[in-house]
Amino acid sequence: MDTNDVSRRGFVTAAGATAAAAEEENSSDGGDGGDGGGGGKTVPAFGAFLGDANGYEEGAVEDARGQDAVTVEVGAGGGFAFSPATVWVSPGTTVTWEWTGEGGAHNVVANDGPAGLDSGDPVESGSYEYETTDDDAGITTYYCSPHQNQGMKGGVAVGDDVETTTIEAGGGPSITIPDQALALTVATFFAMTSTLGLGYFREVSRRDPGGLRSFAPRAAGNPVLRGHRQGGGPADRRSCHRTEGKAVRATHHRDDDERSSGPEADEGKIVPPASAGQQGGDSPGRAERCVGG
User: Fold this and answer.
1) Quick one: DSSP state of residue 170?
2) Does a cis peptide bond (omega within 30 degrees of 0) precede residue 84?
3) pTM higher than 0.85, yes or no?
């Protein structure tokens, strides 16, 4: 078994182990995905009316239950928002809207719900207040009539007996990949990495058969000469091919000193024919071209 075979087997084994580990990790992590991240926050369900309200976040309701009073700013956030946009209070809590004097004239008008909110005509003064105490449980949404289209809206929830919604911890439900999709993904990844890896090793084997690691440059009219095998081998590697009826012998010396010295180290130099004994069995009269490493 050569080095390339060992490398290919090691690559395939490592890729398979990585894919299996990824699938096992997803299975263990995704098993409890239905919990939505381990609980959430319960808040009043104010509905779609506040979907475009300035400063409103579904999970950012001001929970003032148990308090005697709460204050809402009118004209916050650049002059066109209520702050906080939504509050949750107990029955009997006094809610006071205080004008900031920003954004022009404002008012408070009920949109839907049990509380009859109505502060009257829009007021621009920065010292104006509107106060109400509501004992009727429920959810009431409201708006500023001059700036409703600009998102100046709000909401008040009274009591514990109101419609609620649960906001998952982390901002939303966890994402779980179905088992079939996961298996297909893992199989595709494994197939792609295996194909690329085997293609790489096959190319290395094609370029370097038998573990050769050095290459001689291609000379015009001559074959490509490959270097010696690392870690041992004969001093010379000889190859011979025939062109136009002449046997051409290419000599690749192992020793750098041998390549750099001697008349036969010059590429393209013709060595006079030797006797059959001296040529190691070659027929006399053939020209020998020696190519340096």
Assistant:
1) T
2) yes
3) no
pLDDT in tens, 246-282: 444 544 444 444 444 444 444 444 445 544 444 444 4
231 beta partners: none
Give the tokens for residue 210.
């038998």
CA distance 227 to 216: 6
* Count of alpha carbons within 13 angstroms of residue 214, beta-carbon side: 11
Neighbours of 197 (CB within 10 A): 17
> Which residues, at least 6 apart from 36, have a Cβ–Cβ distance to it below 8 Å?
168, 169, 173, 174
- The Cα 153–Cα 49 span in angstroms is 8
Please give the Cα distance from 211 to 167 (Å, whole number). Answer: 63
**Region of residue 45 (phi > 0: left; psi between -120 and 50: alpha; otherwise: beta):** beta
pLDDT score of 287 more than 90 = no
Task: Determine the pLDDT at residue 236.
Answer: 46
Burial group, residue 110, by CB count within 10 angstroms (0-12, 13-18, 19+)? middle
User: Hey, is 270 helix, strand or coil?
Assistant: strand
